[in-house]
Write a structure and sequence with these properties.
This protein is α/β, with parallel strands linked by helices and about 350 residues long. It folds into two domains: about 20-35 and about 265-360, Alpha-Beta Complex (Aspartate Aminotransferase, domain 1), CATH 3.90.1150.10; about 40-260, Aspartate Aminotransferase, domain 2 (3-Layer(aba) Sandwich). The protein is built from ten helices and 13 strands. It has helices spanning about 40-50, 60-75, 90-100, 120-125, 170-175, 230-245, 250-260, 265-285, 310-320, 340-360, and strands spanning about 25-30, 85-90, 110, 130-135, 150-155, 185, 205-210, 225-230, 290, 300-305, 320, 325, 335-340. The protein has a seven-stranded mixed β-sheet, sandwiched between helices. α5 (about 170-175) links the parallel β5 and β6. The longest helix is centred in the last third of the chain and has 24 residues, at about 265-285. The radius of gyration is 20 Å and the shape is globular.
């Protein structure tokens, strides 16, 4: 670090993103990207927007916010408007805004000990105290552990990195148990088999639902996310947004997002294909002796009863198949594997079988 670094960041441990290696061609199953390209409408609209890049993007993201609010209102059967939506540079940005806006020295953050790795980073970067609540022995969130939590709650549902989901009723239990604290439900992976908490917005004013266009909607490279909540909460978040970067979403990304919403049948079919492939891989891995969490995300979380998880990751990478390994103690024997196309998954299973036979 340089001698100019603000001392408050001396001990900041940054988030470590998934590898994006350039040294060779990999079957890349480490960052939960979609194996499917963006919709044609998304590509077309983004290309047209590129012709006007001399102009600033709309700081209100009005066209996208209006279309998204209308779609969410239809799905949730709630009278949502653009005033209930904030559009951000990936869902990470709205999560960071939530830490900045609704946490502080007297309002700690609360989240599981195994979850999205950015939560403790956002807390540390913003000087927010936080409390981690252990998952149970089956790596599940127990709603009872979150009653009267005494802070702003961050619940990834389905949970990263396990893929295990809470039901809508369980989320409602947490909301009821924390009437004076905000509950942020991070639904990055909700479209692959979990229940969204969006319909609960009509009953609870302490709910902020966060989603992304990166996973099911095939726009990871565009960086587009959003939050949905009461108009008061959205105004609070926009105060922070306009105080940091009012042009946070570029014009091409905004138009790509509109294009995605115009072709939702395409997105739905892609999600169904991922679900089918996930079930196929889960069955094959169980037959190979692997232990799995009950993931309903676009990834599986697996460990072998006798072969070290780190060795599996290393040997797979040597053979051109990239998966994700974490060194945190409770996860060290697990690997997370993105569900890709059937061809990608068949290659993964073949190479994994060879690695297990060699390492046994």
């Amino acid at each position: 670090m340089s001698r100019f670094l603000n001392s408050k960041y001396n001990n900041l441990a940054p988030y470590v993103p998934g590898e994006q290696p350039q040294d060779q061609q990999y079957v890349k199953l480490n960052t939960n990207e979609s194996p499917f390209p963006p919709s044609r409408a998304a590509v077309y609209r983004a290309a047209r927007a590129a012709e006007r890049l001399q102009l600033y993007s709309d700081p209100d993201c009005r066209a996208l916010a209006e279309k998204l609010a209308a779609r969410l209102a239809e799905d949730s059967e709630l009278p949502l408007t653009e005033g209930n939506v904030i559009i951000t540079n990936g869902s990470d940005e709205v999560l960071n805004f939530a830490f900045m806006t609704f946490c502080g020295s007297e309002k700690p953050a609360v989240f599981p000990d195994i979850t999205y790795g950015f939560y403790p980073v956002f807390a540390d970067m913003n000087g927010v105290p936080y409390r981690e609540i252990p998952l149970d022995d089956e790596l599940r969130i127990r709603p009872a552990d979150y009653m009267c939590a005494g802070g702003t709650l961050f619940i990834a549902n389905p949970n990263a990195h396990t893929g295990v989901a809470l039901s809508r009723d369980e989320i409602e239990e947490i909301l009821r148990g924390n009437p004076d604290d905000l509950v942020v439900v991070d639904e990055a992976y909700v479209d692959f088999g979990a229940e969204s908490s969006l319909p609960l917005l009509g009953k609870y004013d302490n709910l902020l639902v966060v989603q992304t266009f990166s996973k099911s909607r095939s726009l990871a490279g565009a960086r587009l996310g959003f939050g949905v909540a009461s108009e008061e909460i959205i105004r609070d978040l926009n105060t922070i947004r306009f105080s940091t970067n009012p042009y946070n979403v570029n014009a091409m990304t905004m138009e790509a997002g509109i294009g995605v919403l115009e072709e939702e049948d395409y997105i739905r079919r892609n999600c169904e294909a991922i679900i089918v492939n996930r079930r196929y891989v889960q069955e094959q891995l169980k037959a190979m002796g692997f232990e799995l969490t009950d993931s309903v995300a676009n990834f599986i979380f697996m460990k072998h009863p006798t072969v070290d998880g780190g060795r599996i990751y290393e040997e797979m990478k040597k053979r051109g198949v990239l998966i994700r390994h974490f060194t945190k103690e409770r996860m060290a024997q697990y690997n997370r594997v993105t569900i890709g196309s059937r061809e990608q998954m068949d290659i993964f299973l073949t190479v994994l079988g060879e690695v297990i036979e060699e390492l046994k």
